[in-house]
Amino acid sequence: MVYVEAQNLPSHIGIIMDGNGRWAQLRGRERVEGHREGSKAVRRVVRAARRLGIRALTLYAFSEQNWARPDLEVDALMQLLREFLLSERDDILDNGIRLNAIGNLGRLPAVVRTVLDPLRKDSAGHDEMTLTLALSYGGREEIANAARELAREVAAGARSAEDVDEQALHARMPSLAVGDPDLVIRTGGERRISNFLLYGLAYAELHFSDALWPDFAERDLYEAIASFQGRERRFGLVGKAAAPVLTEGEAAADEAAPRSEASATLLRLVG
Ligand code: IPE
Ligand code: IPE
Ligand code: MG
Predict the structure, then answer these.
(1) Which of 43, 71, 234, 261 has a CA 20 to 30 Å removed from the CA of 108?
(2) What is the mean pLDDT of residues 239-254?
(3) Is 17 in the pocket of ligand 1 (CB under 6 A)?
(4) Separation in Å, CA 62 to CA 43, 72, 74, 130
(5) Can you tell me the distance from the alpha carbon of 178 to that of 197, in angstroms, rounded to the nearest whole number?
(6) Is residue 187 in contact with ligand 1, taking CB distance under 6 Å?
(7) Are 40 and 48 in contact (CB under 8 A)?
(8) pLDDT tens digits for range 120-166
(9) What is the set of domains in the chain, with CATH numbers?
(10) What is this structure's pTM?
(11) What is the Cα–Cα distance from 49 to 132, expressed in whole angstroms?
């Protein structure tokens, strides 16, 4: 049993969905079959996140660097992406999900753009959850794009160099339009970021799972959230442990204060 608190959910979760190739290789199958199985995990996780009430989910599906993989694998990934968007279209629209995409979308082939663009448009007014697919995405590329935009504004005289600050960069990062990621999960056992959401990661909580992406189940998502909820985020400030010690009277009053709300909304979840 995994316990997740209903009030303290991460608002924005990012996932580095890694391990498809190894999942297939372990079974003596082609890497592409791992990607196919991986798209079933995407469906599971999107549904579970929507049910929990997560506001924003960003999935790292294809990096700018992944284009250098063998053509056969890249083509298969694009085809699977198309199939995923086609098969999930109704579910996305029926469940109030806004489907968005970030990255160098101009590099995506027409087979993807012809299904991605209409779904982005048709779901644009939805606000239950924003599902962002990072496609042909790179965190460094995103930072460079934001810097280039600002440089153009300075060159045009629309902004002074002194006004190029942390917020100005932030405002030009499509990945952060839904807010900074609170929790970033990487599956597949590697402990690295691989060019995902670099700027927004500043104060994200990181969770590494050894499960290969095709094996990642609802329960694994709940465990990641439960782990997030057990942590103290300090954002550079002093933590609770450093807060002033309560006097005996204050401590008694604190003890007596009603706390039932938190326990009443504990969600008991099994994967
Ligand atoms: C993640 O799985 C999917 C993509 C990067 C597109 P991988 O294909 O990287 O799988 P492994 O890491 O080789 O097992
Ligand atoms: C990160 O995985 C990219 C995606 C999950 C889309 P990679 O498999 O490409 O990353 P590395 O090569 O292990 O760093
Ligand atoms: Mg990988």
Answers:
(1) 43
(2) 71
(3) yes
(4) 16, 15, 9, 18
(5) 12
(6) no
(7) no
(8) 999 999 999 999 999 999 999 999 999 999 999 999 999 999 999 99
(9) 12-240 (3.40.1180.10), 241-271 (no CATH)
(10) 0.93
(11) 13
